[in-house]
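Cross-posting from the modeling subforum.

Setting up a comparison between two proteins and wanted a second pair of eyes on the formatting. Protein 1 (sequence, then structure tokens):
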Amino acid sequence: MNPLIMIPARMAATRLPNKPLADIGGLPMIVRAYRQAEQSGLPVVVAAGDPEIVEAVEAAGGRAVLTDPALPSGSDRIRAAVDAIDPEGDFDAVINVQGDMPFASPGLATACAAVLHGEPACDIATLVAAEADVSDRTNPDVVKAVLALGEAERQGRALYFTRSTLYGDAPIWRHIGVYGYRRDALNRFCAAPQSPLERREKLEQLRALEMGMQIWAAAIDTAPISVDNPADLEAARRIAAG
């Protein structure tokens, strides 16, 4: 396979405006995310919704593509960006790494690429991690992945994703928002309208499942910190400070 990492980013975050340019230890958050992704050895491009993001990435020596700020989702943004830089389709897989994960291990992208390579039936690859606390089970902000996964297995097909509390006492899998798309799957996904379950749960991956696509997930040991609000940003700054 010939995968490419795309990092979607836009300034208009509801809970933390101008989030991509938030300073974390002397670097904009999007630059930290870019440099982490670069360590995977795969080519990396930022799919930016605003010129300020392009300027920040290019000033740090990275590559960014300006996309329409009106695009409705990160998936649409990465599709627009990859079509702009690779109209011939040389990259047959796109790994969507979130720009608000400034310390994400570069192994997350390669783990998604490995799932796509190893599972021919997989249209979209993603990641999960074990719950951090029992309170995750009832927290609607924690997206749970329901997997066809044996007790000793570390990779399996995703049957559903939900914000709801899951029945039973077994531990849950927390979904990590890193995706690997086969190029044709990304095109089909973005061309389809929002689905009923997607609107209900506010989880776009449910559109893929309702379309009959297969999503496979690999388990990782630790979930990376995600910066969604001012408290998360302060936590990220503490990590950067050592």
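Protein 2 (same layout):
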Amino acid sequence: MGRRSGILEFAVLGLLRESPMHGYELRKRLNTSLGVFRAFSYGTLYPCLKTLVANGWLIEEPGNNPEDALAAPLAGRRAKIVYRLTAEGKEHFEELLSQTGPDTYDDEHFAARFAFFGQTSRDVRMRVLEGRRSRLEERLEKMRASLARTRERLDDYTLELQRHGMESVEREVRWLNELIESERAGRDLKGSAAEGSAQQDTTSGAPGGLPRSGESPRPDTPDDTAT
């Protein structure tokens, strides 16, 4: 499984843990709530859904809207399929939530993991946050060393771009420090789930679409046609 497809499967399972959805709803939530997936297409989502169904983690059900069921044959379209998380799928997602390996610190994977922190236990949140901070501190050290070596050979614009990159990483490190301090003090973010929320069936208000280092969140993208 590729890294990006693994992140997508994680996010789909997490969203379906909230409630069953059809493909259009899933894509909308992935686009608007998880910024890392803003550029993905239905051609990416549906193979992922088929894989999750084949693994027994999702089941397909006909949509329960009578109007959709009547309109689909007349319009020559398939009725909407609703995807529901199975007990095995929920168990698998909770297993994924408990993982704290190096992949969870990467830019894209961390953004997806953070979006589901409301369903994640505090000790796991701490390990992921501390791992992410360590990863960024290493990156920052390398950036500073590289800048020191090449400063004299860079033009003003390239130098400014490298400084901007460093400042972006420094901002995220400061943000992580604040989050880690709050976790250690036993404080949840506003709107997040309470301690032990990994056992809950609803997500918190933890920010989805986490931007990469220093990047400002982009506005929601318009929806495409429904499936």
